[in-house]
Amino acid sequence: MPLIPLKPLIDASDKYHYGQGAFNVNAVAQAKAVIEVHEMFRSPAILQGADLANGFMGGCTDFAKATLEDKKRGAKLIGDAVRKYGEHASIPIVLHLDHGRDFDSCKAAIDGGYTSVMIDGSSLDFDRNVELTREVVKYAHARGVSVEGELGVLAGVEDHVFSKESTYTNPLKAVEFFKKTQVDALAISYGTMHGASKGANVRLRKEIPLAIRECMRHEGIEGGLVSHGSSTVPEYIVNEINGLGGQIGNANGIAIEQLLEAIQCGINKINVDSDIRLAVTRNFRELFHREESLKTSPSVGAIYRLLEEKKEAFDPRVFVTPIMDTVMYGNIPDGDVEKIVTAMEKGVKEVVGTLIVQFGSYGKASLVECKSLEEMKELYK
């Protein structure tokens, strides 16, 4: 099945009242794993490449310094990987840009094969955010590509996104934002946080999405509500990492019970990144613990050394730089690298499969009214 835009998945999740997970990928193997586990559960799928993930996939290992050319190259490589494993899948699949920094980043993603983009103007004042988002919507909708905006600021750290404090989304401003920009979905701030250190006992302000949704219905506005910073940070995975020599501290996620309540209050799309990072890192540590010979392997021994040097890190991008050819192109030169790839895929499937079931998207693939980019062009007109 060809990749489709975001809007049909948002429409289905809203109509049938389930949560649609959106999962970040940073390697060909991760994209493959996300698609396979969604197909196993007959669930629609949203794969996300963050703006700096495109830079990393473009070969910039110090991805915080990724150039636009790095992002263009990486966007195409992620797009190629998702099409390779997704075009013959039996489920609808969206490739979505997470946290596009500016118009050029969104354009690079669209040109690279993304079917949906997020433009993050949340750090700007309202009018400038509207102006930037409208510019992206105009370019994207003319090509059948869906757009997600953001209003309100989430605390926490994720790639280049950083804020010490949250600014909750004003429901009335959210409705105005939908009207003025024509976005397909809006990321809101209602208590979630970026990163794995969200603080203990986080409480979501579910009245915010509820109020926005009621106002949208009153005004006849269609659109999805998105929950960023929604990783659950499974305690058992953190404990296993630390039991294998890691030093992950102050790791707290959003309780799954709160996310399920948020879905019933109008949240459609739920972004998850940190959970995948943790599971993959745990699997790497477990693999080297189980197979001592890999620690001195010419092809993957450097990964073990990075794990030992950076015990507090849990982002796999920190550790997989010695095998960038595998990360970017999916090439597997020997059995040792194959073991690393298998560990990565299993970690992705463990987390994503669990959340597909918990969010309720399993068995929902057939409920999505799939539309091609060409069909969406006409619809957007």
Write the layout of secondary structure elements.
Layout: H1 7-16, E1 20-24, H2 28-40, E2 45-50, H3 51-57, H4 68-86, E3 93-100, H5 103-111, E4 116-119, H6 126-141, E5 146-151, E6 155-158, E7 161-163, H7 171-181, E8 185-188, E9 193-194, H8 207-219, E10 224-227, H9 235-243, H10 256-264, E11 269-272, H11 274-290, H12 301-309, H13 324-329, H14 335-359, H15 373-380
Parallel strand pairs: 1-2, 1-11, 2-3, 3-4, 4-5, 5-8, 6-9, 8-10, 10-11
Antiparallel strand pairs: 6-7
Helix pairs in contact: 2-4, 2-14, 3-4, 4-5, 5-6, 7-8, 9-11, 11-14
Explained architecture:
By secondary structure, this protein is α/β, with parallel strands linked by helices. It has helices spanning 7-16, 28-40, 51-57, 68-86, 103-111, 126-141, 171-181, 207-219, 235-243, 256-264, 274-290, 301-309, 324-329, 335-359, 373-380; strands at 20-24, 45-50, 93-100, 116-119, 146-151, 155-158, 161-163, 185-188, 193-194, 224-227, 269-272. The strands form 2 sheets. Strands 1-2-3-4-5-8-10-11 form an 8-stranded parallel beta barrel, surrounded by 9 helices. Strand 4, helix 6 and strand 5 form a beta-alpha-beta unit. Helix 2 (28-40) runs parallel beside helix 4. Mean pLDDT is 93; it is low at 156-164.
